């Protein structure tokens, strides 16, 4: 929305921030900056993992120390609370999921990159669909289709008439529609909104301090820069938090599929 100050017009950044054309004329329509960043992130994580664990030492240092700290965090804060004895079996998947989501999020705070990959809805949707398929596969495999659905709709202790009329429809709606939808949208929406706010305050500072410096606009520009710095710190925290929450919910869904009665 245009804002007028001292006769100059400032236009706030909008949805064009997320509209990326192909990298060059004639390139495939899907070959855009977010796709390249996603691929670079995966390659970088593979390189870090190789450097950390290709030749592990008894006393961890450098990348190995970082890798082991990340492993312990995911194991103790995500896997064990929801998966119990099955935690170690699912650690490769959960650690990989947490690491790639976190790095893709952090791209939004890295100078020169400054775009969180997960602010494009396609990437969180793919993650959520993979988790959704795994959850249903485990539930059906371990308990059968009928047994898994029965455990969802008729929990122990709840009268069956009440469950049939009220609880069962809501639980089915949550399991097959709401849960995968919110799993993806929560990550996407936070990265989308955070990137938009950072771009707005950065644009305010640049416009009023560099593009159109005026006496009246100088305090606004300084405020924009200050807010951009503050919001960058807050956004880094949110980027970490969203990676943690997405992975935690994944562990919870897998745990519920393996042991639906709990």
UniProtKB/TrEMBL annotation:
The chain crosses the membrane at residues 35-54, 90-109, 121-140, 161-181, 187-209, 216-234, 240-258. InterPro entries: ATP_synth_F0_asu, ATP_synth_F0_asu_AS, ATP_synth_F0_asu_bact/mt, F0_ATP_A_sf. CDD domains: ATP-synt_Fo_a_6 (cd00310). Its main location: membrane. The keyword Transmembrane applies. Signal peptide: none annotated. It is a multi-pass membrane protein. It is found in: Cell membrane; Membrane. It holds the Pfam family ATP-synt_A. The keyword Membrane applies. It comes from the Bacteria. Keywords: ATP synthesis, Cell membrane, CF(0), Hydrogen ion transport, Ion transport, Membrane, Transmembrane, Transmembrane helix, Transport. Belongs to the ATPase A chain family. Key component of the proton channel; it plays a direct role in the translocation of protons across the membrane. PANTHER family: ATP SYNTHASE SUBUNIT A. This is ATP synthase subunit a. It comes from Microbispora siamensis. The lineage of its organism: Bacteria, Bacillati, Actinomycetota, Actinomycetes, Streptosporangiales.
């Amino acid at each position: 929305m245009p804002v007028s100050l001292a006769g100059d017009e400032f236009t706030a950044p909008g949805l064009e921030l997320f509209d990326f054309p192909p990298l060059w004329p004639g390139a495939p329509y899907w070959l855009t900056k977010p796709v390249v960043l996603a691929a670079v992130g995966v390659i970088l994580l593979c390189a870090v993992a190789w450097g950390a664990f290709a030749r592990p030492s008894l006393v961890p240092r450098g990348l190995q120390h970082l890798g082991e700290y990340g492993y312990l965090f995911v194991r103790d804060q995500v896997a064990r609370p929801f998966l119990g004895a099955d935690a170690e079996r699912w650690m490769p998947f959960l650690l990989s999921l947490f690491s790639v989501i976190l790095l893709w999020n952090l791209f939004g705070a890295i100078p020169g990159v400054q775009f969180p990959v997960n602010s494009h809805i396609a990437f969180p949707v793919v993650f959520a669909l993979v988790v959704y398929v795994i959850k249903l596969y485990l539930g059906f495999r371990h308990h059968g289709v009928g047994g898994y659905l029965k455990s969802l709709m008729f929990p122990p202790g709840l009268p069956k008439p009440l469950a049939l009329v009220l609880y069962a429809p809501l639980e089915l709606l949550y399991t097959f529609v709401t849960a995968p939808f919110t799993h993806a949208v929560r990550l996407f929406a936070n990265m989308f909104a955070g990137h938009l706010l950072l771009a707005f305050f950065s644009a305010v500072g640049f416009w009023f301090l560099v593009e159109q410096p005026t006496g009246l606009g100088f305090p606004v520009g300084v405020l924009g820069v200050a807010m951009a710095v503050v919001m960058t710190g807050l956004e880094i925290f949110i980027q970490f938090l969203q990676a943690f929450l997405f992975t935690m919910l994944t562990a919870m869904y897998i745990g519920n599929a393996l042991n639906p009665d709990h």
